[in-house]
Amino acid sequence: MAAPVNTFITNNAVGNRESLHNIITILNKDETPFISTIGSGDADATYEEWQLDTLGNADTNNSNLEGDDTTADAIAPTLRVGNRTQILKKPFTISTTQEAVKKAGRDSEISYQTALAGRRVKMDLEAIACQNQASVAQSGAVTRKMGGFESWITTNVSRGTGGASGGFTAGNTVAPTDGTQRASTEALLKTVIRAAWTAGGKPTILLMGANQKQAFSAFTGIATQYQEPKGKAATVIGAVDRYVSDFGTFNAMASRFVRGREIGVIDPSLWRLLWLRKWKKVELAQTGDARKFHIIGEVTLESRNEAGNGIVADLT
Q: What is the four-CA torsion angle of 194, 199, 51, 38, rounded to 10 degrees?
């Protein structure tokens, strides 16, 4: 029913005050399960190097004659590998007027945008570190890039038809070649876990995207469980967050920043972020009636030995 004739309603008023709540809601999608789990250290150059070695296999023919002379075994040299630092930054510019006016939800626009820029650049680092980016040397307009997790893994892999590992060669890592995608199965995962253990690794994390996490929780043999605490409503458990294998217990972690077609089998002790320059807010030269800033850092990913890790790749 319509309002009576000449009723003065809010649509016609010009003096009503606005109602803007002093709250800004941001979805917290900046969890970083890979870089938050691995270690960190310092870098001293834009190309960081380290060495790898192996114990080899046990020799069941190790028997010797009494009084026999000893001949030295051949010694294989260590393998020297490295990764390049990458400069990440998030710039923003705030007018001096915007900083001065009264605002809802924050006192300082500069402080607010600084916090957002820091969270956003951390998301970038997580995505770069745990995806398939190859390392690249700076040349002309080509920026320097670090090799991500996927580009290192060559030893314990399961790939679809046509897929090929990348790996470290001639000073850089190479991005893997994607193969034909196939369904995720527990058998594929068990094979890679066993291979990583056999090689000497002790992985403890399974890192995967949303689709793979749901497929993982539905593996045949992992039964849906029902809990009925006394005096409380029954709870249906439809997810698996810890996986006990024959070769250790794993935390199954969902990530928004992996590509989504893989399950990473990760030993966190074998990875580090090496910082040449840790995150810093820098105010840039002012060229007008605004203040310029960027959040900047320079870092690389150290793969201390990829053979202790693994990947189930090319999953639908």
A: 30
Cα separation, 170 vs 226, in Å, equals 54
Half-sphere exposure of 64 toward its Cβ, with a 13 Å CA cutoff?
8
DSSP-assigned beta bridge partners for residue 169? 172
pTM of the predicted model as reported, rounded to 2 decimal places? 0.91
CB-CB contact of 48 with 85 (8 Å)? yes
Round to the nearest angstrom and report the end-to-end CA distance of the chain: 56
CA-to-CA distance for 309 and 266, rounded, in angstroms?
5
**pLDDT tens-digit readout, 87-123:** 999 999 999 999 999 999 999 999 999 999 999 999 9
Contact criterion met (CB below 8 Å) for 85 and 300:
yes
Whether residue 158 has pLDDT greater than 80? yes
Count other C-beta atoms under 10 Å from residue 207's C-beta: 25
Segment 239-251 mean pLDDT: 92
